Amino acid sequence: MSFLEKIKEQAYTLLPEIIEIRRKLHANPELSYKEKNTADIISAWLAERGIPHRKNIGGYGIVGLVEGKNPGKIIALRADMDALPITEENQVEYKSQHSGIMHACGHDVHIACLLGTAWILNDLKDQFEGTVKLIFQPAEEKAPGGALKMIEEGVLAHPAVDAIFGQHVFPELEAGKVGFKSGKYMASSDEINLFIRGKGGHAAMPEKIDDTVLATAHILTALQRIVSRASNPQTPSVLSFGQIVTNGGAMNVIPDEVSVHGTFRTYDEQWRKKAHKLIDETARNTAKAFGCQCETVIDKGYPFLVNDDALTRQAKNAAIEFLGKANVAELESQMTAEDFACYSQLIPACFYRLGTGNKGKGITSMLHTPTFDVDESSMETGAGLMAWLVINQLT
After folding, report:
1. Is the pTM value of this prediction over 0.90?
2. Which of the residues are catalytic?
3. Please, what CATH class does the domain formed by 190-300 belong to?
4. How far from 201 is each of 99, 207, 210, 249, CA to CA, in Å?
C-alpha cells in the first residue's frame, strides 16, 4: 500500500474520533490568552498517543514533535486555538456552553485536524526521515497574537524549522475541496484610534465652542484621500472606520471628545509605514483647522501574509494528487488578516484553505457569524491532506 493510500485509509478511520474532538472543543470555547482548558485537552490527546510535547509556550501554546527514522528536514504544522466573543445561535448538540464565546472561526476544526494529522504521522514515523513540529497556537484573534509570542519563545528553533503549513476553514468552498494562493495572500492589519478633543457645549452657541463632531466628520472625509490619492493604485489598501463614540453629547450638546476606531490594511510594509504617518498628520491638521486637537494611536498588528511560491506550488500539486484536480481551487488574495503571517515573514510558508461548506445541508454561514458551522466530513480531508503535504516534503 502506498503512502497516499495509507494516509487516506487512516484519515477515514480516524474521522469519528476527529469529529468527537472537534465537538468537545466547540462546546467549550475559550477566548484569546485564556485557552487553558483547550490546551489541557490537546495535551491529553497527544499524551494518549505517546507524542512528546511541551506546554505553555507563548501563553497556553503547545509544541509537539513527531520524529522520523532519521534526521532530516523539519516541517512545522500550525493550528490556532482561541475562540471569538460571539454568542452562538446554532441549535446543535455541541453548541457552545460558554455564553458569549464561540468557535466562529473554525479553530476547533484546525485543532482536531492537526491532532488527526499527528496521529497519522506518528503511526508512519518509521517510514519517513526528518521531523514534524506540531504547533498549537493560542491567541490568533487578538493582537499582538500568539504567533509572535511563540516565535519569541523559540517555536521556529530547537530544532530549526525549514518550512511551515497552516490550514484554515473556508465555507465558500464545498467540503472535500481545498484552495491555494501563491505570493501575497492576506493583508497586514493595524488598529487606528483617533481622539478628537475640544471645548464642548450648547449646540445652539457654536461661536462659544469647538465643534468636535464637525471636526470628526471632516477628519474621516480627509482620511479617505490617503488611500484614493496618496497610495499606489497597484497596492491594495483599505482604511475603514467602524466605530464613533462621543464622551457625552446629545441632540443639542456638542461633546468635549469624540473617539473614532478603525482599521488600516495593505500589502506593502514601506507604504504601511508611510500611511501611518499620513493618517496622523491628516487627522491632527484637520482637527486644528476646526479649533480642536486630535491624538492618534495606531496599534500595529499583523504583517501581510506571503505564501512561498515554491512551497505552495509543491503543496498544490500534492493536493491535486491527493484529491484530484477538480477539488483544488486557485484562491484570490484577501484584505483579511492572520497572524500566521508572522511565520511567513521568517521562513517558507504555505497557508491554504479547507473547504467546509455544504449548500445541500444548509451549511453556508460565513466566518465570524453566530450561525457558522462546518460540514464535519471536511475534516477527513483536513487531517489526511496535511499529513500528505508533510510526506511530500520529507520523502
Report:
1. yes
2. 302, 376
3. alpha beta
4. 41, 10, 8, 9
